[in-house]
Amino acid sequence: MRKSKLIICIILVLLMTSIYVYTYAQTELAFEINYDGVVTKGEEKDVKIVLAGTNATAYTNVRVNVTITGPATPKLIATDSAGQSIDIATIGYWGPETGFPVQGTFQNTTPVKATFPESGDYTIKLDLVDLQNASTVLATKTEAITVLSSDVTNTIQNTIDNTMQNVQELPKTGTSVVEYGLYFIVGALILYCVYTINKKKINT
To answer: Where are any strands of DSSP class E within 82-190?
Structure first.
């Protein structure tokens, strides 16, 4: 009976550790959309799209796909490495058509000039996809944006909480080798304690 309890404890500890590691490993890549103040119809807005990685797995061909819903199609103008202006909203993605590499810990910021032709509620969805693996989604971010009419005098707080005035460092994601080691040590200590307690009970 005591051996059965010990085996159950071991299984539970290993299961909890596996779930924790798996959950955090899935968030090693992340997006943020940052801008200041409110968005007004017809007025150009400076936006920064951030792709960050922490101990990220190496991928050789990823691309940022962009999906927009709302009253109209906005202009999202970014400048590529060759100095050309690209309308992300029109082509539906950012980055080379064949993708670009990502790996490790990094933070890539893409400045974008955004102009919304109509007021109303918009949704912008960013998907980082692995082109070498059937466009598997590696990270995703969906942001709701309320575009105000130009004659509105009482501004409404935008639905995006992370504005340029209150930008905080991106939360650490992913799991480092050191953290894996700590999880293993903690799990081993728990198993040792359970084993010692059960051994004392058997001897008594």
So the answer is: 85-87, 93-94, 100-115, 120-130, 136-148
